[in-house]
Design a protein that fits this description.
Blueprint (H helix, E strand, L loop, with lengths): L1 H36 L6 H23 L15 H35 L3 E4 L2 E4 L1 H23 L8
Antiparallel strand pairs: 1-2
Helix pairs in contact: 1-2, 1-4, 2-4, 3-4
Length: 161
């Protein structure tokens, strides 16, 4: 389970990197075309907002958490004895796993509906499927829940990247 989970989380990181690369290329091409030829790529902003950004943010979410790169505010950590701190970390992992799992469940219905009805993003005369961005949100939350469960059962140990 751990190796499979680690692999899935790393694959999502790869998808995020590919989406970021594609977004940089598309935005760069749009800027160059606008500056050099006075034309742009129609719908570039919509593609960034509805496709690239969900893939980037939710693709990388679990990987950052899994590697221990999340933002932490340790207001009371330095006052707690080590045993209490470990217990608090485990409680946080459990709450995160349950919350991310619930969000994955809720967004899965929205993504499935978008796929079922063939939801499209209208970009000028081009219609691009809208479900991949919604699936990215669902997958991101599901992988975050998985990453929290892995850390919970590993005793809070982070996985080096």
């Amino acid at each position: 389970m751990n190796k499979l989970g680690d692999g899935l989380i790393r694959a999502a990181d790869g998808v995020a990197i590919l989406a970021l690369t594609a977004m940089i290329l598309q935005v760069g091409a749009t800027i160059l075309l606008r500056e050099l030829a006075g034309i742009g790529i129609s719908g570039a902003a919509e593609m960034v907002a509805k496709l690239y950004m969900p893939l980037i943010v939710f693709g990388a979410l679990a990987g950052h958490y899994h590697a221990g790169a999340e933002i932490r505010v340790d207001l009371i950590a330095h006052w707690l004895p080590p045993g209490a701190l470990r217990l608090l970390d485990r409680l946080i992992e459990l709450v995160l796993a349950l919350t991310a799992g619930a969000l994955a469940w809720k967004t899965a219905g929205l993504a499935a509906r978008a796929l079922r009805i063939g939801e499209r993003i209208e970009i000028g005369t081009l219609a691009v499927p809208g479900w991949p961005g919604k699936m990215a949100v669902t997958a991101g939350f599901a992988l975050l829940a998985l990453a929290a469960l892995i850390r919970l059962f590993r005793g809070g140990r982070h996985v080096p990247r």
